[in-house]
Amino acid sequence: MAQIGYLGVVKAPRDHVILIFGAAGDLAKKKLLPAFHRLWTGGLMPERWRLIGTGRTERSDEDFRDIAREAVQEEIGELGDWERFAELLSYTAADFGPGRTEVLAAAVADARRDVGGDAETLAYLSTPPSTYHSISAGLVESGLVVGGKVVFEKPFGRDRDDAAALAHSLRKGLDDHQVFLIDHFLGKEAVQDLLSVRFANGLFEPVWNRHHVDHVQIDVLEAGDVGSRGDFFEETGTVRDMLTTHLLHVLSFAAMDPPPNLSADAIATEVEKVFASITPLEPSCVVRGQYEGYRDTPGVAADSDVETFSAARVEIRNHRWNGVPFILRTGKALAAKRSGVTVVFKAPPREMFPGGVADGGLDPNRLMLDLDRPGCLKLGLMTKESGWDMSLQASTLGLGGAVEDVGVGAYERLLHDALMGDRTLFTSIDAVDAAWQIVERVLADPPPLHHYAQKSWGPAAADRLIAPHAWALSPARSSR
Fold first, then answer.
1. What is the pairing mode between strands 392-399 and 325-331?
2. Which residues on adjacent β-strands are paired with residue 316?
3. Euclidean distance between CA atoms 412 and 194, whole angstroms
4. Is the Cβ–Cβ distance between 328 and 247 less than 8 Å?
5. pLDDT of 304-320, one tens digit each?
6. Which residues does 377 contact at the CB level (< 8 Å), separation at least 6?
7. Maximal CA-CA distance, the chain
8. Catalytic site residues?
9. What is the model's pLDDT at position 477?
10. Which long-range contacts does 258-262 make (Cβ < 8 Å, 24+ apart)?
11. Which of 56, 153, 311, 438 has the smallest set of CB atoms within 10 Å of its CB?
12. How far apart are CA 213 and CA 322, in angstroms?
C-alpha cells in the first residue's frame, strides 16, 4: 500500500523480521538504527515488523533499546513516539555460525509468530568482513533467510578469491537476487544525479565521450581520521574499503553507456560492461599513502603498511572512453571533506585570444558534480573580461543543491529498497568479482607507501600521478 511520508508517495514493504548482526557497532548506531527510525516515522516500514539486534555481547532488550534511543537522539535529534518504536526492537546474544544457529533461530521464530507467518526475513551484516563466511554459512544452514534477503556491507571479501568463495557459499542456499551488496554511495541523491545529468540533457549526452572529454576526476576525501575503527581499517585499507567500492562504482555511473531503462538488471548490465572494459591496474598506476600518526591508533600495528590514502589512474578500453584517463582519489585525515566528479573537456583552439593555448593561460571547461550536495553542479566556462580587448576569464555557472541531510538519505533509500526487494542501487556479485579483478595486481604487489601530514592533501606522489593536469578539488601545491 502506498503511504505518504517525508519521502513522498512510496510503497510500503511487506511484513518483515529484520536481523542486524553487529547491532551495537558504529555503523548500526550511526546509520542503520536512525534510518529505520526515519522510515518508521515516515510511514514507510511494513505494517507489521520486528527488528532483532544480535552480537556476541550479552545485553537485555532494554539495554539494546537504550543504545538505539541514544543513537537516534544523536543522529536525528527527534524521537517521535519512541515507546511504540522501541517495542519493535529486541536483542539476542549469539555466537552465530555453522552448528551454532539454534538461539538466533528461536528468536526469529518468535518474532515471525508475532508478525505473522508470511513475514519475510532480512538479515543485515553490519560486522567486519572477516565474519562474513561464518555468518553466511550459518544463515544458509539454518534456513533463516529462505525466501528472504541478506545485505552485506562493503567490502565483500578481502580479495577476488575470498569474494568468490563467499559467493559460492551463499549460492548453496540463496539465489543472487536475494543477495544485496550495499554501497551507500549509490544511494546518495548526488550520485544518482550523474544519471539524470548525463542522459536527460542534450547539452551533455552527445559530448560524454572520448571525442570531447580530456579526463575525469573522482574524489572522496575525508577530513576525519580512522577514529576508533583501527581494527577494521587494518583489515581493509582504502584500496579494499574505498577504491574497489565507492570510487569504482561512481566511475561506472559516470562511464556507462545508456541503459534501456532504469531497472536493476539493465543498470547492473551496463556497470558490468564498464568493469569488464577497465584495464587491470598496475602498481605503477596507484599511489598509496598513510597519514602521520595512524600507527598510534588503538588496534593498528606499530609497523602497519595499511594505506589510509589511495589514488589510481584508470583506463577504460572501449569505444566511448579509449584514451581518456579516469583518475580516482580517496583518503583520511585530509585538509577538508570533499567529494565530487569532475569532467574536464577538451579545449578548442584559442590562439585568437590573448593568453591562448600557446601561453598556457586558459582553463578548460569543467563540469563538477558535488557528491555531498544533491543537485549541486558547477560548469566552468571561459568568458570575456570587461575592458577594451578580448582577454578571457574563467567563469562558473552554478546550480545550488540541498545539503546531504535534506531529502532522501542514502541508508533510508537503500534499506527501503532492500525491504522491497529492489536491487537497482545495489552491486551485483559479478560486478564485485570484476572490481576485485581490477585491483588484483595492486593487492598482490602493493606500491610503496608514502607518508603524509594530517590536514594536508595527501602525498605529493598523487600530484605526479595526475600530471600534467591538477586536482580540481584541492589547491595546487607550491612545490613537489
1. unpaired
2. 278
3. 20
4. yes
5. 999 999 999 999 999 99
6. 193, 197, 367, 368, 369, 370, 398, 399, 401
7. 83
8. 246
9. 54
10. 258/198, 258/199, 258/205, 262/195, 262/424
11. 56
12. 11
- For residue range 96-151, what is the model confidence (pLDDT) as tens digits? 999 999 999 999 999 999 998 789 999 999 998 889 999 999 999 999 998 899 99
Q: Are 132 and 170 in contact (CB under 8 A)?
A: no
* Chain centre to alpha carbon of residue 202: 28
- Can you say whether residue 362 is alpha, beta or left, with left for phi > 0 and alpha for psi between -120 and 50 degrees? beta
Task: Dig out the grid coordinates for 129 from the structure.
Answer: 568482513
CB 308 within 8 A of CB 289: yes
Q: How many CB atoms lie within 10 A of CB 278?
A: 22
Burial class (CB in 10 A: 0-12, 13-18, 19+), 377: middle
Work out the average pLDDT over 221-232.
91
Residue with cell 547491532: 23
Q: What would the grid cell of residue 32 be?
A: 542503520
**Amino acid residing at 215:** H
DSSP structural state of residue 294: G
Cell of 17: 523480521
State how far the Cα of 273 lies from the Cα of 252, in Å rounded to an integer: 9
Nearest C-alpha neighbor of 345 from the set 472, 181, 166, 257: 472
Q: What is the C-alpha to C-alpha distance for residues 63 and 87, in angstroms, rounded to an integer?
A: 13
382, 231 contact by CB (below 8 A) = no
Q: Is there a contact between 184 and 414 (Cβ–Cβ < 8 Å)?
A: yes
